């Protein structure tokens, strides 16, 4: 069975002022996002900074309430769950963040940080059981036992991200949304953390949604790849087919912008092959979201938004003139 799917999901942020009937107005960033993920698989989400990857990740977990569309988790529409059911469901879906140290409470020991989610997800556990579970999680992420009594400021970036992962797995989830989990780390540490996630996936049967602007890292870890541009999904494909031949001109531009591996450079940003004006996600163009920058643009692209359509072999693309 599919673990999680989204249909036409719309996620945005409140804007100042009130709308109709005094309601808060929400400006959508992510529009009509559709995806599905099976247990134990990894979906990589790529796209330039600001295209809405994080917003989609948070909308899927209902950390930001979607304004339209639906999310189905293990066959159940998340919007229909009672508070109690949602609390239980939340244990199954976790998130880790880009800045690992900022994500940890500086006043708590690592044992406290890692065991804390259990108070919500499994309130029936005794203190000793919670402690054992937290120690098990720390062991699974490769941290020595004596780390349990340490504080976040004593950690390197890579160690802090391991603690973030331990906190995410302590409730035995089925899915972890990884939001740029290695972008803030030294290049030499990035591979260790990615390999840890792949190892945990194998051992615990985890599904991962791996959000990154780094196409090389996404290639390494993903089974499926999804490309976002200005809040919209423009391409979806199995990993090998995607990297062999991207179908959307935007995907191609992203790939051409991948920097050569260079250990002296901290992190390469995509974008150098992407010329032209980048519209604001708050005011996307009427046609294709890539029309203002596409080297193959035709008049139709500026007026009609192409829908995501099936191209066979489990591939989908939103382009009037795909490769
Ligand atoms: N809390 C917020 N309130 C209002 N707008 C926001 C908020 N967070 C993000 N945005 C806007 O939403 C858009 C998408 O941001 P998001 O962080 O989802 O992009 P992203 O693809 O994850 O980029 P990055 O790789 O830089 O994190 C951006 O234009 C951003 O300015």
UniProtKB/TrEMBL annotation:
Keywords: ATP-binding, Nucleotide-binding, Transport. Transmembrane segments: none annotated. It is found in: Cell inner membrane. Belongs to the ABC transporter superfamily. GO terms for cellular component: plasma membrane. It is a peripheral membrane protein. It holds the Pfam family ABC_tran. GO terms for molecular function: ATP binding; ATP hydrolysis activity. Residues 258-279 are annotated as: Disordered. Residues 15-255 form the ABC transporter domain. This is ATP-binding cassette domain-containing protein. One of its GO terms (biological process) is peptide transport. Gene3D superfamilies: P-loop containing nucleotide triphosphate hydrolases.
